[in-house]
């Protein structure tokens, strides 16, 4: 039985992560801590469907006080068993061109500093857990090597911060390797999370299924790696994105 904490669970990828986790038998997923800045009706519905197992925890990843309070709440529930898996999913993206970029600091605080503070705060509980996994939700558009492919994607602050998140993942992977941790980042693909992404490659369910498969099955062999989900039939897609389950270039 494993316990999971997911940030940014009120919508999009985060909500689908906690929904799919809750659908797993309790023998595999014991407790889901669904965290977000505010609780909405879909989260409340899931909590009602899985009482005592699906726990709503307020967290603003830019607010250290809210994170510290969340640690106390989670610790009161898991006790000496600790927390098994932390999934840093909360993130923001602003659309525009480099010449107009004015949101870099705010985006950095959510996409990079937020996961850093989360790891720092929850590390004592993760050390007590049996799985010791930290998963950072990244994006292939954060790959420096692939920027010739994604040059026309107008999201400079998102690209910059995801590249920084990737580096931070490597640093934590190196720092915690001797303690048996597995720290990696994964790109869930271009997903149809809302109307603005209605023309994206994959459904959010497909992308999240790929992510959770990696979380469950990956061991220390993927520590410090930048992974791509695997979607059968998309391995050699002629478009921007291929989903082959392999490592993405930095």
From TrEMBL:
A Pfam family recorded for this sequence? adh_short
Q: Which GO terms describe its molecular function?
A: oxidoreductase activity
Record-linked InterPro entries: Fungal_SecMetab_SDRs, NAD(P)-bd_dom_sf, SDR_fam
Its cellular-component GO annotations read: cytoplasm
**UniProt record similarity statement:** Belongs to the short-chain dehydrogenases/reductases (SDR) family.
Q: Which protein are we looking at? A: Short chain oxidoreductase
What is the organism field in this record? Answer: Aspergillus ibericus CBS 121593
């Amino acid at each position: 039985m494993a316990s999971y904490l997911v940030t940014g669970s009120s919508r999009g990828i985060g909500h689908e992560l906690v929904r799919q986790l809750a659908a797993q038998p309790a023998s595999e997923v014991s407790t889901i801590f669904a965290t977000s800045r505010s609780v909405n009706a879909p989260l409340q519905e899931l909590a009602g469907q899985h009482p005592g197992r699906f726990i709503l925890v307020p967290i603003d990843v830019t607010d250290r006080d809210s994170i510290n309070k969340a640690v106390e709440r989670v610790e009161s529930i898991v006790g000496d068993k600790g927390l098994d898996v932390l999934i840093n999913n909360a993130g923001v993206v602003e659309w525009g061109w480099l010449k107009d970029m004015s949101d870099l600091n705010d985006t950095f605080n959510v996409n990079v500093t937020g996961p850093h503070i989360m790891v720092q705060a929850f590390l004592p509980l993760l050390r007590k857990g049996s799985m010791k996994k930290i998963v950072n939700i990244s994006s292939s558009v954060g790959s420096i090597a692939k920027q010739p492919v994604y040059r026309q994607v107008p999201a400079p602050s998102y690209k910059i911060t995801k590249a920084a998140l990737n580096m931070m993942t490597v640093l934590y992977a190196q720092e915690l390797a001797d303690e048996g941790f597995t720290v990696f980042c994964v790109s869930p693909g271009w997903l149809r999370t809302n109307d603005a992404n209605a023309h994206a490659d994959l459904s959010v369910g497909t992308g999240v299924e790929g992510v959770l498969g990696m979380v469950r099955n990956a061991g220390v062999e993927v520590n410090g790696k930048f992974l791509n989900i695997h979607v059968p039939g998309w391995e050699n897609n002629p478009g921007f994105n291929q989903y082959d389950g392999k490592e993405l270039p930095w």
